Automatic annotation (TrEMBL):
Keywords assigned: Allosteric enzyme, ATP-binding, Kinase, Nucleotide-binding, Transferase
Regulation of catalytic or functional activity: Appears to be allosterically activated by the binding of pArg-containing polypeptides to the pArg-binding pocket localized in the C-terminal domain of McsB.
Organism: Neobacillus ginsengisoli
Name of the protein: Protein-arginine kinase
Catalytic reaction list: L-arginyl-[protein] + ATP = N(omega)-phospho-L-arginyl-[protein] + ADP + H(+)
Renumbered ranges of motif RDXXRA motif of the pArg binding pocket involved in allosteric regulation: 338-343
Chain ranges passing through the membrane: none
GO molecular function ontology, one term from the record: protein arginine kinase activity
Residues annotated for ATP binding in this entry: 27-31, 92, 126, 177-181, 208-213
Its job: Catalyzes the specific phosphorylation of arginine residues in a large number of proteins. Is part of the bacterial stress response system. Protein arginine phosphorylation has a physiologically important role and is involved in the regulation of many critical cellular processes, such as protein homeostasis, motility, competence, and stringent and stress responses, by regulating gene expression and protein activity.
Pfam families in UniProt: ATP-gua_Ptrans
Residue ranges of domain Phosphagen kinase C-terminal in the record: 24-255
Length: 353
């Protein structure tokens, strides 16, 4: 494998596969933050220490024989072009922070892209497992196995009282961030989301956009994740999040059913108008594309549209991002050129041309 493999493989397994409740839950993610005991944290360490961390991870990879999750490829951030880093961010394989602020960072990625291990991000190691649908328990089990594997070779920074020590105090304890990406158009259309988000925040969870902190909820897609890592076990965090997500799924289904009963023809009209925009536009911006794709996905889920793959939103929300469009164009594009290519790609994927 090489960097080109991950750049050219447009659709990750979590995008194309179906999981439990995948009509509403697009993906489940577990992230574990860990640090080496003998090195300063990335917020303070030197470039030499950063290089030593990467070297240590290379030695672990080369000596462990750990292949349960397939071959892992080490990609160094400092050797990438800006566009290549942007594509990896859009595929959720690395974080914006690693791409922008970590010239001595790296990432280990499995061939199916379900597992990525970021190195020298905000912490020395961030283990990420990304599964389709609502599979928090499965993702947590996988992350735990990888964590145990690494701990056999690395002495973690750990305190008997506080747990795993991290650069940011909000991650101290388990070091666990569990998140679920959800498509919630019903709650948006019925305007229930405005009362639900504050209630979720009061439960110690946070609601963010598609690319995490500071990002916008494009296409009615939201990330729900835990805020508290200290004083709770990993199992408790996962269970609490799953409980809230299950309620959100129920509320989203109820809102869709209410729309079917009270505004069915208006909803069908909205879906097909958006379908018409996507299948006929010759130029389309990111926000408009995301909004129309959300409507079309809702139409697929509610049975209005039957001739389009069920995972179309997952795929096109990634494929139509600026980095991907420029990657496939072979170089930088002006905003207007990206909008033209986005429209053409959507028409092609919807099999209209």
């Amino acid at each position: 494998m090489s960097l080109e493999h991950f750049l050219n493989q447009a659709v990750s397994s979590w995008m194309s596969a179906e999981g439990p409740d995948s009509d509403i839950v697009l993906s489940s993610r577990i992230r574990l933050a860990r640090n080496f005991e003998d090195y300063k944290f990335p917020t303070l360490f030197s470039h030499e220490e950063a290089k030593k961390v990467i070297l240590s991870m290379e030695e672990v990879l080369g000596s462990s024989g750990f292949n349960k999750f397939g071959q892992m490829e080490l990609l160094k951030i400092g050797e990438m072009q800006p566009l290549q880093k942007r594509v990896l961010v859009e595929k959720h394989l690395i974080s914006p922070h690693l791409a922008e602020d970590s010239p001595y960072g790296a990432v280990l990625v499995t061939e199916n892209e379900e597992v990525s291990i970021m190195i020298n991000e905000e912490d020395h190691i961030r283990i990420q497992c990304l599964f389709p649908g609502l599979q928090l328990s499965e993702a947590l089990d996988t992350a735990g196995e990888i964590d145990d594997w690494l701990e056999g070779y690395i002495q973690y920074a750990f305190d008997e009282k506080y747990g795993y020590l991290t650069s940011c105090p909000t991650n101290v304890g388990t070091g666990l961030r569990a998140s679920v990406m959800m498509h919630l158009p019903g709650l948006i259309i019925t305007q229930q989301i405005n009362r639900i988000i504050p209630a979720i925040n009061q439960l110690g969870l946070v609601v963010r956009g598609i690319y995490g902190e500071g990002s916008e909820a494009l296409g009615n897609i939201f990330q729900i994740s835990n805020q508290i890592t200290l004083g709770k076990s990993e199992e408790d965090i996962g269970r609490d999040l799953k409980g809230v997500v299950s309620q959100l799924i129920s509320q989203e289904r109820s809102s869709r059913e209410a729309l079917r009963k009270t505004s069915n023809i208006q909803l069908e009209d909205r879906v097909y108008r958006s379908y018409g925009v996507l299948t006929n536009s010759r130029i389309i911006e990111t926000k408009e594309a995301a909004r129309c794709l959300s409507d079309v996905q809702l139409g697929i889920d509610m049975g209005f549209i039957n001739n389009i793959p069920k995972n179309i939103l997952n795929e096109l929300m990634i494929l139509t991002q600026p980095g991907f469009l420029q990657q496939y164009a072979g170089g930088p594009l002006r905003p207007n050129e990206r909008d033209i290519r986005r429209a053409a790609l959507i028409r092609e994927r919807l099999k209209m041309e």
